[in-house]
Amino acid sequence: MTAVHHHHPIVESPPVLAELHTHWHNEDDTAAWARQLAAQPALAQAYVTLHGDLGAGKTTLVRHLLRALGVQGRIKSPTYAVVEPHEAPGLAIWHFDFYRFTDPREWEDAGFRDLFAAPGLKLAEWPEKAAALTPPADLAIYLEATDAMQRQVTLRAHTPLGQALLQGLQAAQEPSP
Predict the structure, then answer these.
(1) Which of 24, 31, 47, 80 suits a disulfide with 122, CB 3.0-4.6 Å?
(2) pLDDT in tens, 122-133
């Protein structure tokens, strides 16, 4: 047996096609930014990953985004279920939280391959826990808490769809003439 059979594959980071930096001063900024992202037509088929330490605001951002997309009712964190499905008008959404994900066999058993192949928006917290199994993110959002309320945010597009999202966000942030 060779070493290939004993080691997990190395997961390479996909290339960054575009990058955007922003700063949120409070939760109102987070909500406003989520509304701008929700307004992007390309989001309907995107895979968006959220990165950051515990308490960085990943779940808060997802909740604001889901509300902006029209999701009604209670929005639960998928920390224990790993995935929570949501419905918005004309849009299927899956919110993943891979924090407790430990066994790649769970991926197949849970049908995640089928979910990622289906149309709709996929949002993933702690994506690095399942990185060898997921496709490259269209858009990766990195959140860093600078204090209790403020966040430094870096957005990285890894696909042409992600680039379209960033371009739409940049256009939404530019002042009108």
Answers:
(1) 47
(2) 999 999 888 788
